Amino acid sequence: FRLTLIGNSTPYILKNCDMKDYITREYRRYIDDGRLVLEPAMGKPDLYQRVAQAWCVVIPSFWESFSNVCMEAMLLQKVVLASSNGGMKEMIHYTDKPAGFVFDWSSPGDFARKLQQVLDLTEQENLDIGRNARENILQLCDPERIVSLRIDHFQRVIEASKTRHRRIYPSLGYKPVGRLDLPKILEPIGVRNRVSICIPYYNMGKYIRETFASINACNYPDKEVIIWDDGSTDEESITVLETLKKEHTDIKIYRHANQGLAATRNRLAEVATGEFILFIDADDKVHPSFCRKAVDILKQYDNVAAVGAWTYRFGESYVFYKIFQPELEYLLLNNMFNYMVVVRRSVYLDFYQHSSMSFMGGFEDWEWWIRMLSHGWLSVVIPKYYFYYRDRRGSMLHLINTNKNLLLRQQIVQLNKDVYNFYADKLFCLCDQNEIAPIYWLGPASRYELDIMAEE
Predict the structure, then answer these.
(1) Could you tell me if 76 and 48 are in contact, meaning their C-beta atoms sit under 8 angstroms apart?
(2) Tell me: the pLDDT tens digits for 316-351?
(3) Nearest 5 degrees, angle CA 19-CA 22-CA 25?
(4) Between vectors from CA 184 to CA 178 and to CA 188, what angle results, nearest 5°?
(5) Hey, which residues does 285 pair with through a beta bridge?
(6) What is the mean pLDDT of residues 223-244?
(7) Which residues pair with 11 in a beta bridge?
(8) Average pLDDT, stretch 53-73?
(9) Sign (positive or negative) of CA dihedral 268, 270, 273, 279
(10) DSSP secondary-structure letter at 241?
(11) pTM, entire model
């Protein structure tokens, strides 16, 4: 028999060459004998005419699915010999009538056996199987039938959505696709629906009024503002805080000797009275709608612990920062999430607090996200620029050089060694496929965009 391959060539990755060149080199003797023919891609009329001359059509897909090729060949009343990989076997076995042949790559010699069966067919048997094949396609793939089925399905989905309220936010990290179980759902702590806006404060008198103004503009009905002064040494900053308290008597202000950002956030969470917490540094700003949007999501989904948003960086630089949904595998490589989130206070206090004794200035929030997500909780990113991060000289971000970055990353791995071991294979492949060291990983779909019209 003669085997004809029709179509354009493709790269052969395993041999780092062109597939047509590889076949030509390896099977030259068959080409020279006329038993293997390589023909270029054809227009459909020529292709159908060429296929009509064939005794059978072979679709030996290993991982690709060539369902359209199978469908067209069967419609042309051709005997098809197809791999069990993909969607071909459903078309061939749609009815009990013989309508083609299916072989299994995992069964040694199965292709040769099935091919021999095809070659041994009488002409009448070949024609009968071809007619059955066409009948299968006309029934299974009839456009009017398919459209009707789809419309019915969509209508059922629409009707079901009117009575069913989804409480679990979907994630590929959950079993059976992923490796995580759903989190243990916790009872709310604090005044229901209240957002406690928690501000760690240290010598930020120059910016606190601007931060407070953005908080005051939030259109959320039940919010409290708590400022914790972590031992400020700047007299002006201390004075500004005292003045702000006199102007806004509902603000709660606490002070203690300097303990660092992580410890301050922990203390703020303990004294807060709300069901939810919004952490925001004393020099940043928040969009008026952020709290309301975030709480809506937290109330809708039981397995979401925190809600963040895209970031607009201003000050020393002006950039837009879009972030991806922080799935655990990605987050283990680098922090893709902002510290400024609305979080369930019950989750924060349930042994997920910042590891303040382990860190020396930086990445506390990243380590917290890892522990939170490793216990099945999810974080959701609102695709809006609701967080305004002030880029200023002397900030914690500017003080993290490469050596400090590497040291902090080592501490994170040590604190979460079991999680990193559990995902070691995935982390290796992610780094390999992205051709990048983890320290430079921003996550999929994450990018910075220069804000040319910064003032606007």
Answers:
(1) yes
(2) 778 887 877 888 988 898 887 878 899 999 999 986
(3) 150
(4) 135
(5) 388
(6) 95
(7) 18
(8) 90
(9) positive
(10) H
(11) 0.70
